[in-house]
Amino acid sequence: MALFGRGPQGDMLDALIDGIRGTGGRTVLVLGAPGIGKSALLAHAVTHASAAGFTIVRLFGEPARSDVPYAGLQQLAHSLGGNPDALAEPQRSALAMALGTGEATVPDVFLVGLATLNLVAEAAARAPVLLVADDIQWLDDPTLSLLAFMGRRVQKEPVLLLGAAREGYRGRLSADELTTLTLPPAVGRRCRIAPVRHSPRSSPFGPSPSAVRSRGQSPCTDRVAHGRDVGPGRSRWPAAVDRAA
Ligand SMILES: Nc1ncnc2c1ncn2[C@@H]1O[C@H](COP(=O)(O)OP(=O)(O)OP(=O)(O)O)[C@@H](O)[C@H]1O
Ligand SMILES: [Mg+2]
């Protein structure tokens, strides 16, 4: 999808991706209002990294699963693949417990972290890794701890941990060592991409992305020349963006 009005942010992520072999691990958190284009920017990074030969690993938070321990890790493990049998036994068992395939139910979080880190490092030895965590405001706490643990330790490996969260998110990943990229409305020649309005009382982070879509809200206020609103029923994206989407 062609990104509209996000040249600087797209270029910054492209440069991080292109330089990751030299810089070693980095962690970037994209912040912004609902509908402002965080996932769209992540998709841009995925396209760029895929073309550069990266292994792409994805996970995302969901309101309904934010209280399910390691729900995010399950997605990560499924997306990453790898060979847990090659891990040292305590790590293998801890990972199995976290994924619900082991015998005990409360795994040692440090061992789960080490196991995940080793699987990611093993993948990164073959090709750089882009680990994309979207909607992290709804990721479960153990998975967030794990991502923070990994972010601090992938200093030498070519791993870019790229997260996105709604504005107001103050979680484990918003530490000082992160690069934070706050998205303002994207203003272009014919269209202004602005946040989706919502009542902050309904949920601290607003409606889920699917709820935003089902309400048919557009992230684009789209005032064309002379400040006139584009009428209902007409596309709110510039033609080039509509074609690309
Ligand atoms: N810069 C852009 N150029 C073209 N389309 C865009 C751009 N930004 C966002 N969009 C489109 O607007 C819609 C909302 O964007 P997106 O889902 O990325 O927002 P978001 O910030 O991730 O929202 P949420 O907080 O609900 O997850 C999507 O259909 C997306 O493709
Ligand atoms: Mg999104």
Describe this structure as you would to a colleague.
The protein is of the alpha/beta class. It has one domain: Rossmann fold, CATH 3.40.50. The chain is 38% helix and 16% strand. The chain has 8 helices and 9 strands. The protein has helices spanning 7-23, 38-51, 71-80, 89-98, 109-126, 141-153, 209-214, 239-244; strands spanning 26-32, 55-60, 129-134, 159-166, 179-182, 186-187, 192-193, 223-224, 228-229. The strands form 3 sheets. It has a 5-stranded parallel sheet, with helices on both faces. Strands 6-7 form a two-stranded antiparallel ribbon. Strands 8-9 form a two-stranded antiparallel ribbon. α6 links the parallel β3 (129-134) and β4. Adenosine-5'-triphosphate binds at residues 1, 3-6, 32, 34-40, 135, 166, 186, 193, 209, 212, 219, 241, 245.
